[in-house]
């Protein structure tokens, strides 16, 4: 999510570049996001400032629309549970349903549940330890970067690392949409079931969607400093015994294990829980209702948004009625 101060800086830069005093220099904006998910990352001791709290927000954004259709989940009970958690509400029913998932068997076909962690260090340690515990040879795949000098910049933008290490039986996750119709999408879970005997030794992965496929190298392109384009060619795979809640944003996961004991941010519990497609594919450990929190300023923003939408609808209905009277 874009920080409010950064949004103001972008708006000022846009006016300067376009040499126009119109908001954002006259550039048309379409902004998407959910403020009830993770807040913008800010420096230590700095107060979080959401995009809608930017000084330039009101003059730049004239129309707000709230999308209400849920596409990731289909189970009405789970959707209702997530709606409550999103708003920071944890009723006895919600707590009971989440605690019951602790005994769920989310594993299938040798594909284990991915653990979502609150901290990045836990993710790296878990994946490294589990890979080391597997028997057999390590297969290493080095990325081909357009500019090796800017590897840190590419690392920051690319979903896969410069080095991917795999073994037979490694739990993996796709990091790119390969074939949406077959279920080979970003976040699809699988297990390495073999390696090609050819020189490249590409991995063969069996996915939870039922597809077994040899995974080939893919290419990512990013815009670097001064408008220069950077690229990375690498396997679209990453180890998936664990991933961070932050990195999971936008993903849909079929089997998830979540430890919420170290949740430290508003919206963090909701982001983690809402990655799961179903309650059956979710296992929640160490659940404490106190971790379900929503930022008060965001809740106020959505209340005002809905009130404004209701007033707009009333105004439209009033006008429509007046027009009908004129015609009559």
Topology:
Elements: H1 4-18, H2 57-60, H3 76-86, H4 92-100, E1 114-117, H5 120-133, E2 139-142, E3 144-145, H6 151-157, E4 163-166, E5 171-174, E6 189-195, E7 203-207, E8 212-214, E9 218-223, E10 229-234, E11 237-239, E12 242-244, H7 245-248, E13 256-259, H8 268-273, E14 282-285, H9 296-327
Parallel strand pairs: 1-12, 1-13, 13-14
Antiparallel strand pairs: 2-4, 3-10, 5-6, 5-11, 6-7, 7-8, 9-10
Number of helices: 9
How would you sum up the global shape?
globular
> Low-confidence stretches at least 5 residues in length (pLDDT < 50)?
none
Order of helices and strands: HHHHEHEEHEEEEEEEEEHEHEH
Average pLDDT taken over every residue: 88
What are the salient characteristics of this protein?
328 residues
Q: How is this structure best described in words?
A:
By secondary structure, the protein is of the alpha+beta class. The protein has helices spanning 4-18, 57-60, 76-86, 92-100, 120-133, 151-157, 245-248, 268-273, 296-327, and strands spanning 114-117, 139-142, 144-145, 163-166, 171-174, 189-195, 203-207, 212-214, 218-223, 229-234, 237-239, 242-244, 256-259, 282-285. A hairpin with a 7-residue loop joins strand 6 (189-195) and strand 7 (203-207).
How would you briefly describe this protein structure?
By secondary structure, the protein is α+β, with helices and mostly antiparallel strands. It has nine helices and 14 strands.
């Amino acid at each position: 999510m874009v920080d409010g101060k950064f949004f103001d800086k972008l708006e000022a830069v846009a006016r300067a570049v376009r040499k126009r005093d119109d908001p954002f220099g006259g550039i048309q904006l379409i902004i998407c996001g959910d403020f009830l998910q993770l807040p913008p990352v800010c420096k230590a001791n700095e107060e979080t400032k959401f995009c809608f709290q930017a000084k330039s927000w009101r003059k730049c954004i004239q129309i707000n629309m709230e999308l209400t259709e849920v596409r990731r989940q289909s189970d009405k009970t789970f959707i209702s549970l997530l709606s409550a958690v999103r708003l920071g509400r944890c009723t006895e029913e919600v707590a009971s349903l989440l605690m019951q998932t602790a005994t769920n068997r989310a594993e299938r076909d040798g594909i284990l549940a991915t653990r979502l962690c609150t901290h990045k260090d836990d993710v790296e340690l878990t994946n490294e330890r589990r890979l080391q515990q597997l028997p057999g040879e390590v297969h290493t795949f080095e990325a081909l970067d357009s500019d090796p000098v800017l590897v840190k910049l590419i690392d920051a933008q690319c979903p896969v690392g410069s080095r991917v290490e795999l073994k037979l039986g490694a739990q993996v996750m796709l990091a790119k949409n390969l074939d949406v119709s077959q279920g080979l999408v970003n976040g699809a879970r699988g297990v390495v079931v073999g390696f090609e005997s050819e020189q490249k030794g590409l991995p063969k992965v069996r996915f939870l969607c039922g597809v077994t496929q040899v995974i080939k190298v893919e290419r990512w392109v990013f815009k670097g400093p001064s408008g220069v384009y950077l690229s990375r060619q690498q396997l679209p795979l990453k180890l998936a015994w664990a991933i961070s809640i932050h990195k999971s944003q936008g993903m849909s996961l079929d089997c998830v294990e979540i430890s919420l004991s170290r949740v430290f941010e508003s919206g963090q519990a909701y982001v983690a829980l809402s990655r799961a497609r179903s309650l059956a594919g979710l296992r929640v450990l160490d659940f404490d209702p106190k971790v379900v929190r929503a930022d008060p300023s965001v809740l106020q923003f959505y209340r005002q948004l809905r009130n404004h939408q209701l007033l707009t609808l009333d105004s439209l209905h009033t006008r429509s009625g007046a027009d009908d009277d004129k015609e009559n």
